[in-house]
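From the methods appendix. Each design record in this collection lists the discretized structure first, followed by the designed amino acid sequence. Records were kept in a plain field format so they could be parsed without special tools. The example shown here is representative of the layout used throughout.

RECORD:
C-ALPHA CELLS (355 positions):
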C-alpha cells in the first residue's frame, strides 16, 4: 500500500537532513544511507527541490565533504562545491581551507588555491599564517597564467580589509621564497595601478628579492623609481638592502656612491651599512677609506663585527701594511663578546624589513 510520509529524517555521514513529503511503501524502513557524491548531486541539481533539500544540510556535512574531496585529490569537485556555496555565508573551520590550499598547491590548481585563499581571508578578516601564502605561491610555480592571482590581489586591494596591504606584501614575500621573481615584479607593476599602492616595505621586499637573485641592474632601476614616487620615502633599510646587493655582486664602486647618497639624505649609517661599505672598500683596495669608516663606526659607539675586522685585516695584508694588520688582529683577539656585534645585532637591524 502506498502512502505519503509527512517528514522523513535521512541520515548522512557527518549529519542528517529532512526530506519533505516522500511517497513510501508502508510499512517502510525510513533509514537509508546517502553517499557524499549523492549529497553533492542533490546540492547541484538545480531542480525545484534542490534549495529545500540543501538548506537542511548542516555545515558539518559540507565540511566533511570538502575534507573528503581534498584527501581524495578531487579538487575540481571541491572548487565546484565552494562555487555553489558562495552565497550561503557558511563559515568553515580554518583547517578545511588550509587543507585545500595545501592540496591545491601540490597539484598546481591555481583556481581552487585562489578561491580557498579568498574565502579564508575574508572569513578571518586578518592576515593569514605564512604557510597559507606559501601554498598559494606553490600553485603558480608551473604556470605563466597569473590572471586568477591578479584578480584575487586586486579584490583584496579594493576591499575594506584593514590588513589589505599586509596581505599583498606577504604574498610578494611568499612568491619570492618560492623563487618566482618574475611574478613578484608583475605584482608590483600591477599594484601601482590599484587602490592599495605599494609602500616602502613593498619596495624594500622586492629590492631584497632582486639582490638575492643577483639582478643588480633591476635593483638600481627600482631604486630610481622609488625616488620618483612622491608617496614613498627611502629609509635605512632601503639603502642597506641595495648596499648588500651591490656588495654581493662585487659592484664596489656603487656601494660608495650609495653610501654617500644616503648620508647626504640625512640617513645615518648603522651596523649593516658600515659593514657592507667597509667590506666593499677593503675588497676594492681603498684601505684608507675603509679604516676611516671603521673608526667613525667606533666613535659612534656602533660595535663592529668580527666580519668587519677580518675584512680590514685581509685588506691591509693585501696592500702590504702588515704592521697595521697585526695591530687590528691583536685588537680583535683582546675584544670580548660584549665588544663585538653578533648575529642577533644583525637580526635586530633586519627586523623592520617585514610586517
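DESIGN:
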Amino acid at each position: 500500500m502506498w502512502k505519503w510520509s509527512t517528514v522523513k529524517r535521512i541520515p548522512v555521514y557527518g549529519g542528517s537532513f529532512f526530506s519533505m513529503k516522500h511517497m513510501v511503501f508502508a510499512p517502510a524502513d525510513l533509514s537509508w544511507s546517502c553517499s557524499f557524491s549523492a549529497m553533492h548531486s542533490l546540492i547541484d541539481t538545480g531542480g525545484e527541490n534542490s534549495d529545500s533539500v540543501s538548506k537542511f544540510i548542516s555545515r558539518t556535512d559540507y565540511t566533511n565533504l570538502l575534507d573528503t574531496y581534498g584527501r581524495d585529490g578531487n579538487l575540481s569537485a571541491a572548487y565546484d562545491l565552494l562555487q555553489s556555496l558562495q552565497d550561503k555565508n557558511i563559515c568553515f573551520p580554518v583547517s578545511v581551507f588550509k587543507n585545500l590550499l595545501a592540496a591545491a598547491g601540490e597539484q598546481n590548481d591555481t583556481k581552487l588555491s585562489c578561491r580557498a585563499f579568498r574565502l579564508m581571508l575574508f572569513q578571518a578578516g586578518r592576515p593569514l599564517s605564512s604557510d597559507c601564502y606559501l601554498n598559494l605561491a606553490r600553485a603558480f610555480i608551473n604556470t605563466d597564467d597569473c590572471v586568477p592571482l591578479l584578480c584575487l590581489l586586486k579584490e583584496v586591494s579594493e576591499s575594506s580589509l584593514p590588513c589589505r596591504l599586509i596581505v599583498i606584501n606577504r604574498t610578494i614575500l611568499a612568491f619570492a621564497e618560492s623563487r618566482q621573481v618574475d611574478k613578484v615584479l608583475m605584482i608590483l607593476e600591477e599594484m601601482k595601478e590599484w587602490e592599495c599602492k605599494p609602500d616602502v616595505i613593498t619596495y624594500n621586499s622586492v629590492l631584497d628579492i632582486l639582490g638575492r637573485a643577483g639582478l643588480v641592474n633591476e635593483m638600481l632601476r627600482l631604486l630610481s623609481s622609488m625616488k620618483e614616487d612622491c608617496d614613498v620615502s627611502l629609509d635605512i633599510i632601503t639603502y642597506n638592502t641595495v648596499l648588500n646587493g651591490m656588495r654581493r655582486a662585487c659592484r664596489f664602486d656603487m656601494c660608495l656612491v650609495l653610501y654617500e647618497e644616503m648620508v647626504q639624505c640625512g640617513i645615518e649609517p648603522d651596523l649593516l651599512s658600515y659593514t657592507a661599505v667597509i667590506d666593499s672598500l677593503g675588497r676594492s683596495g681603498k684601505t684608507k677609506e675603509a679604516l676611516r669608516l671603521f673608526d667613525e663606526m667606533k666613535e659612534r659607539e656602533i660595535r663592529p663585527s668580527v666580519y668587519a675586522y677580518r675584512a680590514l685585516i685581509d685588506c691591509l695584508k693585501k696592500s702590504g701594511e702588515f704592521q697595521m694588520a697585526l695591530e687590528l688582529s691583536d685588537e680583535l683577539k683582546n675584544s670580548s663578546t660584549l665588544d663585538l656585534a653578533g648575529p642577533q645585532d644583525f637580526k635586530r637591524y633586519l627586523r623592520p624589513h617585514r610586517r
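APPENDIX NOTE: The longest strand covers residues 2-12.
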